[in-house]
Design brief:
The chain has 419 residues and is mostly helical. It has a single domain, classed as Cytochrome P450 (Cytochrome p450, Orthogonal Bundle). 53% of the residues lie in helices and 6% in strands. It has 18 helices and 9 strands. The strands form 4 sheets. A 3-stranded antiparallel sheet has the order 1-2-5. It has a two-stranded antiparallel ribbon with strand order 3-4. A hairpin with a 1-residue loop joins strand 7 and strand 8. Helix 4 packs antiparallel against helix 11, helix 7 packs antiparallel against helix 8 and helix 11 crosses helix 12. The radius of gyration is 22 Å and the shape is globular. It starts with 5 loop residues before the first strand and ends in a 9-residue tail after the last strand.
Length: 419
């Protein structure tokens, strides 16, 4: 039996972009595409980009300060996605979408992406729908399906950004201290010419944007909520950060932050409870039967399992619905016990795991350390467990559409944030 499993064509047609690495069906073609992407997302490459991550987070800090001065609520559900969008677009296009500067905190942008995810179950049943939407006159799509129009406009915007990048001046590109992903792919010797067409690169950019903002934004949302909803967790985290970061103007790099034991435990627990993809991520062995225990699974049969069942397994994680960073500290201090990290599946596992995992970790450690160190008196505002509960499976877990998600305020009556 070959260990190269294809993705299920029926299931993944909902994405409408089999030309992107993530949606690639055949394992052999995915290996080629992934091989070209890997150098851009290695630990070394991410380390070179980490200063830009911090610069974008510092812009986020400035906006939080402005909101605090005016006593305004900060919609962190959307704000975190503004940060992750600006980071990933800087990396793949060489310039940001500047969602952090938008008055609506990127609500319209998120709405367009959510429309795509909400349409995905229908598109899976009728895969021709996406091509039909793209071919329709814009006015007709607006009349018949406003959600589809948001998706069409989003794809068009990504196409335009790709076009601008590929027509950029070479000196401008070479002046960047880090590689620009889409530009680098267009020049890669690891890809044949058929993989470097404008259409293919634009679809790849679209996939990288989607994967690069939502999962990380969701993990940050859930982690922050649970920190603020658990005073003892909040207290311990603040104490560790205060000791590790005495100068608020100098946040350590993410590689140093990863060494902070309690912050590391908080991040792991956030990754566990955020889950990532709720769907089963089905795989197919097209060339041979598979043996599972006493059962033979015929070639061509789709198999899969939701990461939710692992993240919430009481056999692996006692009291699994409780946010308990201590479970990771105990595990780290028990050399003979089974390592629980192998059961964190927010970014997948194996050859089909998320290519941007290293970048996502850099973002999570940088953002959480910066926000909680600089705003120790941040508080939940008009946010209940229902507001952050994942109630829908649109591939990833999604919150209810009728909630504003995670919202916070900065307590002005008892704060020590540096002005």
């Amino acid at each position: 039996m070959s260990n190269r499993l294809d993705k299920s064509a029926y299931f993944y047609c909902m994405l409408g972009n089999p030309k992107a690495s993530f949606g690639t069906i055949a394992a052999d073609l995915h290996r080629i595409r992934r091989g070209a992407l890997n150098p851009f997302f290695s630990q070394q490459a991410v380390a070179k980009f980490s200063g830009h991550v911090q610069a974008i987070v510092d812009r986020f800090v400035d906006r939080i300060k402005s909101c605090a001065e005016r006593g305004e609520t900060i919609p962190l559900f959307y704000a975190y996605r503004c940060v992750t969008v600006d980071i990933i677009t800087e990396y793949i296009f060489g310039h940001q979408f500047n969602l952090l500067d938008r008055a609506d905190w990127g609500r319209d942008f998120y709405s367009a992406w959510r429309s795509l995810w909400e349409l995905s179950p229908t598109i899976r049943q009728f895969p021709w729908m996406m091509d039909a939407f793209m071919a329709m006159p814009r006015w007709f799509t607006a009349l018949t399906n406003p959600k589809a129009l948001e998706v069409v406009d989003l794809f068009s915007d990504v196409d335009e950004q790709t076009k601008i990048l590929l027509s950029s001046d070479l000196k401008q590109i070479e002046s960047k201290p880090y590689p620009i992903v889409v530009w680098g792919l267009s020049k890669s010797d690891l890809l044949p010419a058929s993989e470097k067409t404008f259409t293919r690169l634009a679809v790849e950019a679209n996939g990288l944007l989607a994967a690069g903002f939502e999962t990380t934004g969701a993990v940050l949302t859930h982690t922050t909520y649970h920190i603020l909803a658990n005073p003892e967790v909040h207290r311990k985290l603040l104490a560790e950060l205060a000791e590790a970061i005495p100068d608020l103007d100098h946040i350590p790099g993410f590689q140093q932050l990863e060494q902070l034991s309690y912050l590391r435990a908080v991040v792991k627990e956030g990754l566990r409870l955020a889950v990532g993809a709720y769907s089963r991520l089905p795989r197919v062995n097209p060339s041979g039967d598979m043996q599972y225990g006493n059962w033979v699974i015929p070639a061509g049969t789709a198999i899969g399992m939701s990461a939710l069942f692992i993240a919430k397994s009481p056999l692996l994680f006692p009291d699994p619905d409780t946010f308990n960073p201590e479970r990771w500290i105990i595990n780290d201090q028990s050399p003979g016990s089974e390592r629980l990290e192998q059961y964190i599946l927010a970014f997948g596992k194996g050859t089909r795991s998320c290519v941007g995992t290293n970048l996502a970790h850099a973002e999570m450690y940088t953002i959480l350390a910066t926000i909680f160190r600089k705003f120790p008196h941040i508080k939940l505002h008009n946010t209940t467990p229902r507001d952050v509960e994942l109630a829908h499976d649109y591939f990833a877990g999604m919150t209810r559409a009728d909630t504003q998600g995670l919202q916070v305020i900065v307590d002005r009556t008892n704060r020590s944030e540096k002005q």
